[in-house]
Specification:
The chain is α+β, with helices and mostly antiparallel strands and about 400 residues long. The chain is built from 17 helices and twelve strands. Strands 1-2-8-5-3 form a five-stranded mixed beta sheet, sandwiched between helices. The longest helix has about 30 residues, at about 225-255. The protein is globular and about 65 Å long.
Length: about 400
């Protein structure tokens, strides 16, 4: 192993389809790495300590958004993922009252119907882009169903969700109008949900038995304003869209690359819940998240000053051999529940139960409904984004 210091880690240097060899170099040689704008952590234990401890906060990015994006700033300011206690605690309580595993499990039959319908469309197409025809529309259909969005509005919702995602740092770097596109989507979604709240309140408080109705009831108990409720609706619509898309698409890619594991899962579909945990660990849909040090700290012998940005490389942590033996091997019978693909601690992903049900159901329908499903003779194209990590185009054959 070379003793030469590693250069500052840059996303531009990463081979996006397979970042893991580079992660391994940093994890082994410089696991608490000083970067241009803060620190990067590559080991599982270090990442878990920051996620579960109280010494690091989320820090809100809306202040870093351009002032020319007022709608985007207001919307994201009310996303609980960017909040710290006590605001985070109150908003999470509202969502937790409405978004329980029991509610999600109750939706499983409807989620299966949505997945089966998309699978039938794939079968009829014969050859199609799995991202465009299944992995991307599937989670939008599910969250729309959960929120109570009218079926006729769902194609429009998908378009707005895609536009809102143009504000991520990787995409803004490539698209000059990314912030403007995202701000316009935030404006449209804000207006839609405010009109929906007004419509429901005008109906003499006869709230529908869906997620918006449940949040309206919880809002009254927790005294939260409409800005928070609207921001949460937008957050739930968009947060699970790209992550679940990546989980389904990359999960299928991993199984194609490990035919023995694919055959095992086809033969024993009851292994799917554990397989989904392993697929999240093996190739995390979100590769990095950031935190801010609330006080001076020390990690791995490095001094972390208060206020420093700390980037947690979840993809590396989930491939750390100290946490998972033979981490580069996919093993759907592995106990992978210690992975950090959904986060840990107080910011643990509130949508994780839904993501699990979507991935389990989507993959079961794909594998069971399309027994000859395979990659077509076209290279898989990845989005140029190391944070929300996954294919942008993945052509498959169904027969």
């Amino acid at each position: 192993m070379s003793d030469a210091p590693l250069p500052p880690f840059r996303a531009a240097d990463v081979h996006v389809p397979d970042p893991y060899p580079l992660y391994r170099r940093y994890r082994e040689q410089d696991p608490v790495h000083r970067a241009e704008d803060g620190w990067l952590l590559f080991r599982h234990d270090d990442v878990a300590r920051v996620l579960t401890g109280r010494g690091y906060g989320r820090g809100a990015p809306p202040s870093r958004l351009p002032r020319e994006c007022p709608h985007l700033r207001r919307t994201t300011a009310n996303w609980m993922v960017f909040m710290d206690p006590p605001e985070h605690t109150r908003v999470r309580a509202m969502v937790a009252k409405s978004f329980t595993p029991r509610i999600v499990e109750g939706l499983r039959p409807r989620i299966r119907q949505l997945a089966a319908s998309l699978v039938e469309e794939l079968r009829a197409a014969g050859t199609a882009d799995l991202v465009d025809r299944f992995a991307a529309p599937f989670p939008i259909l599910v969250i729309s169903e959960l929120l109570g969005v009218r079926a006729a509005d769902r194609p429009w919702f998908r378009a707005q969700a895609v536009d809102l995602q143009q504000a991520t740092s990787a995409r803004v770097a490539r698209r000059a109008d990314g912030f403007a596109v995202a701000d316009a989507a935030a404006r449209e979604l804000d207006a839609y949900f405010r009109a929906e709240l007004a419509r429901r309140r005008a109906a003499q408080h006869r709230y529908e038995a869906d997620l918006i109705g449940a949040m309206l009831r919880a809002q009254e108990q927790l005294a939260l304003g409409d800005d928070v409720l609207v921001g949460t609706c937008v957050h739930l619509l968009t947060a699970g869209h790209e992550t679940t898309t990546n989980l389904v698409a990359k999960g299928l890619l991993a199984l194609f690359a490990h035919p023995g594991q694919l055959a095992l899962l086809r033969a024993r579909p009851e292994l799917m819940p554990g397989a989904v945990e392993e697929l999240v660990r093996y190739d995390s849909p979100v590769q990095m998240i950031s935190r801010q040090a609330l006080a001076d700290d020390e990690i791995g012998g490095r001094a972390i000053a208060a206020g420093s940005k700390v980037t947690l490389v979840l993809g590396s942590a989930n491939r750390d051999p100290e946490g998972f033996p033979s981490p580069d091997r996919l093993d759907i019978r592995r106990d992978a529940r210690r992975h950090c693909g959904f986060g840990m601690g107080r910011h643990y992903c509130v949508g994780a139960p839904l993501a699990r049900v979507e991935a389990e159901t989507g993959l079961l329908e794909l594998l069971g409904g399309l027994p000859r499903l395979a990659l077509a003779d076209e290279p898989v194209t990845y989005a140029d984004d190391l944070v929300f990590h996954g294919p942008s185009r993945m052509v498959v054959r169904t027969g």
